Amino acid sequence: MNCAHCGTPLPEKRRRDQVYCSNACSARASERRRKDGQPVPPRWRHPALTADDPVLRAAARHAQELGQVGGWNPSTTRCVLDGLVTVLTSLPAGERVPLSEVRARPQRWVSRPRLIEVLTDLDLLHDDSAPAIRSWIDRVTSHLAPGFINPVRQWLLVLLNGDTRSRPRSASSIYVYFGCIRPFLDDWAAGYDHLREVTRSDIRTALGPLSGSRRATATSAMRSLFGFARKRGLIFSNPTTGLKGRPADFALLPMADEEIRAIEQQADDLAGRVIIALAAENAARTGAIRHLTLDDVDLANRRITLAGRRQRLGDLSHRVLRRWLRHRRATWPHTTNPHVLISDKTAHGTGPISQQFVTLRMTRTGCSVDRIRKDRILHEALAGGADPLHLSLVFGISHSTAARYSAVAEHLLADELDQTPQP
């Protein structure tokens, strides 16, 4: 391609919208157009916006709209359009783009998350990738002894996917379960050829040095593994039958006045105040706070939906949420993220804030969301006469958990009555 004014060949590595060899040629061409009364030529447009393929053209226009709404950098939008050209050109009609191809084919400066967002909105993406945890399961079980590989791998896959009689477990639960029993599996593999040879004596020997929450977690993991293996016919008998773990060593006590004052003084961040308010008034868990959406908050009627349960919105949470939503609109006016709490990173997408986002804000206060949540439930138990049914209805907790809070409340109330001076 040559310069549109002087005809000098343009360099191979140039901008795609470059038509002049220098600024001087651009200025002379502009002056000539003014003298001749010629109109200004149209600005350069990305070829994807005028492509013959209707699918590519629609995807390019949608990407441009998302870039305007989400505040994408012009360079980001341009690179996403390049990625659309790469993955949609020669795509057969009616087929979708595999996710593995999106991650491999476009050039390295193309924003994969933005490209995936465009294709997902238009239902043009097919997720053909295997979850990372499946690869992890294959990797960690491959190092076990031959007689232990198959039972343990099948057990972990059932934990991941669930079956007709059990629900899928979270990835964190799977990591914790396997991490608890892996040392025992390695010890047993040194003397046995198969999982079916493990006896109740071996189980007791393994659990002997453990105590507290570590023993309870290891016991649950062993019961899950051997119960699954017995049900599938991989072992002859279950050595964990009747095995019960010791309860975790923890105490439910109300928060001290010093802790409450520290939280009030350190909660200088609006997002942190929202987290503390929801945990202190509604006993919200971290996951429920992270996944809270704008549709879940009804400020006019003072109602909020946390983890699928519609609840009353307290005065503190109401004030804090109003301030946060005003700050949210002023800071990220064009965001399309549906979640209440967002950050500079998630404002350009649709995902929730990370666990680390919550942890960093709670670290400043020296307290955790779980600690505040337990204090709220215990306070309700003390105020409501230690009624477990009342706690279950208000907070949606299980009957066993409600009974545990009620038992602690009864002891605290009894101590207060014993210490009250008699007239």
Automatic annotation (TrEMBL):
Domain of life: Bacteria
Family matches, as Gene3D superfamilies: Intergrase catalytic core (1.10.443.10)
Domain Core-binding (CB), chain residue ranges per copy: 146-230
This protein's UniProt keywords: DNA recombination, DNA-binding
InterPro entries, A to Z: CB, DNA_brk_join_enz, Integrase-like_cat_sf
Region spans: Disordered: 30-49
UniProt-recorded name of the protein: Core-binding (CB) domain-containing protein
Species assigned in the record: Nonomuraea mangrovi
Taxonomy of the source species: Bacteria, Bacillati, Actinomycetota, Actinomycetes, Streptosporangiales
